[in-house]
Amino acid sequence: MSLQIEFEQGRRALIVRLKGELDHHTADIVKARMEEAIAKEDIRHLILSLKDLSFMDSSGLGVILGRYKQITSKGGKMVVCDVSPAVHRLFELSGLFKIVSIQDNERSAISSLEVAL
């Protein structure tokens, strides 16, 4: 299965919606497209919606951690939302929940950042 990436932007915040599988086959593409969008649009905050993400491996964790570092280096915040049980477990095992904020849905994620899209 492939991966689809959807971007929505407003007020220096970017929502990235991933659909499909984020693994070693798709990680480099996702990384490059997210880096480009963050740099091009002067994005300060990032919301990563994983509602339709069916699978993620350690390569995906690397992409998320890298974007977290990119955003926090600009003084921004990153929130992950709509995490499936399988991906949630991967986050728990990796300890990613200790540094990345998790919200139930996009609305909660937006509210937690206190920015209007």
Automatic annotation (TrEMBL):
Residues 3-117 form the STAS domain. InterPro entries: Anti-sigma_ant, Anti-sigma_F_ant, STAS_dom, STAS_dom_sf. Keywords: Phosphoprotein, Sporulation. Pfam families: STAS. The keyword Iron does not apply. The keyword NADP does not apply. In the phosphorylated form it could act as an anti-anti-sigma factor that counteracts SpoIIAB and thus releases sigma f from inhibition. Belongs to the anti-sigma-factor antagonist family. NCBIfam families: ant_ant_sig, spore_II_AA. This is Anti-sigma F factor antagonist.
